Structure formats: C-alpha cells, structure tokens
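sry for the spam today, last one i promise. struct tokens for design, 453 residues
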C-alpha cells in the first residue's frame, strides 16, 4: 500500500486530509504537526508521497525540500500553501516537486495527482515482469517514426502510452530537434481521440499580432481584410488534439485566452462576443526554461500548472550516443529512396565525425547533415568529404582541444587565439583588436607578453 506523509502545522488540515485519503482505502497515512521532526522521519525513507505545507514555524516547507534534495530522498512531493507566492512556487519547482496546490485543496485535482504519482512509482519499481523495451509497448506502431534504442527514450514511450489514456494536458520539454512533435503524434494515435484530427501549431512561427486570429479564428469584418468568417486552429482541432509547439513564445494576452480554453472549454473568435464550446486536448512543448519565464513575468504560473499535469522531458541527442549510427542509417535509407540514389553505406571516417559531435540541433540536425551529404556524394559510400563545411569546421576546432591535447593554461589558449586572429587579418592589429573585442593598446601589450612575432 502507498504510504503518504502529511506535514502541516494546522491540525484541522491534517485531520481533514487524513480522513479524505483513508476513506479511499488506497493509502496508509501518517501526519506530522511538529515540523522539527521532519528530518528524522523523512530520513527513514518509509514514505512514497509527501504532502507538505510551506508556511510553518522553525522548520519551513522550503527547509524540508532542501533537506530532501540534499539527502536525495526518493519521495514525490506535493506542496500545499494558503498563500499564492510566485517566487516560492518557482523555488519549489526547481527542487523537483510534483505539483504546487493552493489551499483549500481541490480534492479532485489532488486525487488526479496521486493517481499519476502512483502510476510513475509502479513504473519505476524493480519488476522482473517489466523491461523498458520496445517489445513491451502495447502500441508499437504509434512510435515507428521515432528511431531509438536508448533506454530513457524507451521509458518515455511507456509513459506516453499511460498519459494517452487520459484527457490531461501534457507538457513536453526538450531542446529543438529532439522529436517533441513525434511524441505528441504518438500520444494522439494511442488516445481515444485518434479518429479526430491532430493540429500542430508553432507559436513562434506567426507574427504576434496575427496569432490570435489564426489560432482562434475571426468573424467577417473583425478587421481590415476579414472578408469572411474563418475557423481557427483550435476549432479545427475540436474533438481531437492540439499540439502547441514553442508555448513559451505566446504573448500574455493569448496565454489568458488559452487558460480559458483549458479551464472552461470555451473561446471567442476575434471580433465575436459569442462563446464557442470546445473539446480539445492540448499537448504543449517548449525548449525554454518556463520556470525562468514565470519569474521574469513572461509566462503565467496558472497556465503552466494547467499544462504541466503530465510532463515528458526528452533527452538531447548528445545523451543518446547509441542512437547516432542507428539514425544515420535510417536517414540514409530514407533519402536514398527520396532522391533515387544507391548509396550503400556510410564510411568509418564519416561515422567517426558524427560520433565526435555534440549535435546542438539534435536529431533534426543529424537528418539535415545526412540529407546534404547524400546530395553531394558522387560514390556509393558516404565519405567525410561530403559532410557540410560548417560541420567539418566545428569538428576541426574541437579536435584541436581534445582530451589528449589539452592546453597547458588559459594563457596558452589566449595566445593561440590571438595568433589565429592575427593570421586571419594578415597582421592588421587594428582589425584584430576589433575582432577580439579589446583595444589596440591591449592587443599590443598581449603581443609583447606572449612574444608573438
């Protein structure tokens, strides 16, 4: 049975939550009013879930969260507070809490959170009957566009299958090019909405003044050029799934309207006073740190928590090295077919270059590199010379400072960099100083210091 610990200095809150949870018959519940005993009890590591009040004397909720983080205690934490403080919420989220709830507690939301936490706990428990492999997926075909043998990615597939069974909003985190839209597509294909449309919208692809009319649609005469009624993306996705990429790019006024869609299931077209009821599941994605955006005031906290009911964090390609060759071969086959080429394999030097690169553009960048190489390659094998010039330049630069040839000091790095810039400018000191971002006098001083001829 799942064990829950509730820490709160208000005895009436403790009594209410204990009775509420015990009535389900699903949990064993312990309560603690004296927060000074928290460290001792948590250090026993006997509980699966913690419901934690933030405002307590002597030992605060934040003190307890820091203790959990320092001791690396594996406990899923839901923070409870009677005060809505954005800085506290952000600080708590950075300490890996599961959710942040205001008092009085929304019972329905609490039980949804507990259910999701238990699902994750059961998934992570050692189990001889379970292996995070492709073969154990129930909906393998839904993930056939995602090429991987990485264990973390395979775990994500299993989480995606479980999340697809609900109508909860999902927030997918990940750098550009990691496959966020492909995961969203897989979730849609598995869900009960699979027979309806999935509409994908990139929030960063539209001018800010145009986004509202494209997203929500507009009425005839709403503005100059609106010669007829237009259905927006959200209405087109009615009954299905709306994938909203780069959610962090949305303007605050649009965020307010999106929040209404999530809370009330309705929206207004531009130029209309008539509300339209909508049934749509929203899967959002971001490559931004939304905690920082909330702190800066550019992203609404309430919208964040509405979107982040379920969360998926996609690893970058540099953390999936075993997938690089696998993906390269996959793209080779695809582009061979697309361009009617017959390139049979990828040379070892070509693969060595790929393996030594960090891929800031992730899978999309690797795909583009193979695409470009196939177009320019003239033999039946992808060779190093067919790699894009920018890629070869980066590889060359990185190889100068590999682990076997580290510079002795910062001064050596600076000296070598100055020499390269001087060579580039044909010894023009004024131009070199400008490139280096220092004064000409400083450059002359460094030339003398390092005895650069």
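last one done:
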């Amino acid at each position: 049975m799942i064990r829950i610990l509730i820490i709160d200095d208000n005895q009436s809150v403790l009594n209410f939550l204990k009775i509420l949870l015990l009535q389900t018959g699903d949990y064993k519940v312990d309560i603690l009013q004296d927060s000074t005993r928290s460290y001792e009890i948590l250090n026993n590591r006997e509980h699966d879930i913690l419901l934690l009040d933030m405002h307590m004397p002597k030992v605060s909720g934040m003190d307890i969260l820091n203790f959990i983080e320092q001791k690396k205690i594996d406990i899923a934490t839901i923070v409870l507070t009677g005060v809505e403080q954005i800085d506290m919420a952000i600080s708590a989220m950075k300490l890996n809490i599961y959710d942040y709830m205001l008092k009085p507690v929304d019972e329905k939301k609490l039980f949804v959170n507990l259910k999701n936490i238990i699902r994750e706990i059961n998934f992570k428990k050692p189990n001889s009957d379970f292996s995070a492999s492709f073969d154990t997926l129930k909906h393998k075909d839904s993930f056939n566009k995602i090429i991987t043998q990485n264990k973390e990615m395979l775990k994500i597939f299993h989480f995606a299958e479980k999340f697809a069974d609900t109508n909860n909003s999902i927030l997918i985190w990940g750098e550009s090019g990691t496959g966020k839209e492909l995961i969203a597509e897989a979730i849609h294909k598995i869900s009960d909405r699979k027979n309806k449309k999935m509409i994908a919208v990139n929030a960063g692809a539209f001018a800010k003044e145009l986004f509202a009319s494209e997203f929500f649609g507009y009425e005839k005469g709403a503005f100059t050029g609106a010669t007829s009624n237009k259905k927006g993306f959200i209405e087109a996705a009615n009954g299905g799934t709306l994938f909203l990429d780069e959610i962090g790019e949305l303007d605050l006024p649009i965020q307010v309207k999106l929040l209404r869609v999530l809370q009330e299931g309705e929206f207004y077209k531009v130029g209309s006073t008539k509300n339209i009821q909508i049934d749509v599941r929203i899967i959002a994605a971001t490559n931004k740190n939304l905690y920082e955006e909330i702190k800066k005031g550019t992203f609404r906290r309430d919208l964040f928590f509405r979107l982040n009911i379920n969360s998926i964090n996609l690893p970058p390609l540099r953390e999936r090295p075993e997938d690089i060759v696998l993906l390269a071969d996959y793209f080779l086959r695809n582009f061979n077919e697309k361009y009617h080429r017959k390139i049979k394999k990828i040379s070892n030097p070509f693969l060595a270059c790929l393996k030594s690169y960090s891929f800031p553009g992730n899978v999309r960048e690797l795909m583009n590199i193979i695409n470009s190489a196939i177009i320019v390659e003239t033999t039946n094998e992808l060779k190093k010379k067919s790699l894009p010039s920018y890629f070869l330049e980066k590889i060359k630069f990185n190889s100068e400072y590999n682990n076997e040839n580290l510079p002795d000091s910062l001064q050596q790095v600076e000296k070598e960099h100055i020499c390269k810039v001087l060579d580039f400018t044909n010894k023009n000191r004024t131009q070199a100083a400008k490139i280096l971002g220092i004064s000409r006098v400083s450059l002359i001083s460094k030339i003398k210091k390092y005895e650069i001829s």
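Residues 126-131, 400-408 have pLDDT under 50 and may be disordered. ok im logging off now
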